[in-house]
Amino acid sequence: MTNRTPKAKTVKAVPTPEDIARKAIARLKSQADPEKAVQAQRYFKETIASYGLTADDSRELAREMYLLVKDGWSLEEAVELCEILLPNKYLEAKGLATLIFLRFHKEFGRPVFGLVKTWLARDYLDNWASVDVLCPDSLGGLLERYPDLVPKIKGWTAHPNRWVKRASAVAFIKLARRGKCLNAAYQIAGRLFRCEDDLIEKANGWLLREAGKTDMGRLEKFLLRQRGRVPRTTIRYAIERFPESKRRLLLEKTRA
């Protein structure tokens, strides 16, 4: 019998964050739709750059990129990818990095809280869509896991950067929807009433609407107590789930 030396298994190299960034940008460019990119601008007051991919296409591309690295990457590499792609001006590049980053949520620890704030303060996430993709899952999960971070995020409501302010509200969206951290959510909302920025007012109304899903009575009492302080944009978002007659009454009773 002839002895044969077993063939060594070929170990496939895991792409680096730089590899994935280059591959992702190439794919985004190849799938670009200039007409849809122009249409995307309608959803933003600030000027954005877009390749014109649909949300489903962007998520599918992020999934493909993640599958290339899921067995070889840790949170460290996902953060490196974000450091490369979040400063990119294109909406889809930011979104792809964020979606891959969120895949490593089980590894999130306290340092991620400060990291996300840094990204926001540097305007890496310089539009409402990018903030809203990242913050409810990343920050929301951390606030639930580490309740001592709640007092820290309350301070974000006074931050000079509008995206940090918006994040302080949207971080609680999924928690409030499940009836969690409601005291903090209402405190955040109250602090943001004085911020005259429609993107903050809308986010705040969204937060209050979600908080009201588990206790409509508490939301109504809160709005009535705060009468005269609640921006009209905020209150219109907040009361969307009330019956029409109740909405009209609350709009009248909360006027300055």
Features:
256 residues; ARM repeat  fold; mainly alpha; Leucine-rich Repeat Variant; elongated
Structure report:
By secondary structure, the chain is an all-alpha fold. The chain folds into 2 domains: 14-107, ARM repeat  fold, CATH 1.20.1660; 129-256, Leucine-rich Repeat Variant. The protein contains 15 helices and no strands. α5 (91-102) runs parallel beside α7 (128-145) and α11 (182-192) packs antiparallel against α12. The radius of gyration is 22 Å and the shape is elongated. The termini are far apart. The mean pLDDT is 95.
Helix content: 55-70%
- In the CATH hierarchy, the third-tier topology of the largest domain is known as Leucine-rich Repeat Variant
Mean pLDDT: 95
CATH class category label of the largest domain: Mainly Alpha
| String of helices and strands | HHHHHHHHHHHHHHH
**Content-based structural category:** mainly alpha
Low-confidence stretches: none
Strand percentage lies at under 5%
In short:
The chain is mainly alpha-helical. It has helices at residues 17-30, 34-40, 55-69, 75-85, 91-102, 110-121, 128-145, 150-154, 162-170, 173-177, 182-192, 198-212, 216-225, 232-238, 244-253.
Q: Secondary structure elements and their pairing?
A:
Blueprint: H1 17-30, H2 34-40, H3 55-69, H4 75-85, H5 91-102, H6 110-121, H7 128-145, H8 150-154, H9 162-170, H10 173-177, H11 182-192, H12 198-212, H13 216-225, H14 232-238, H15 244-253
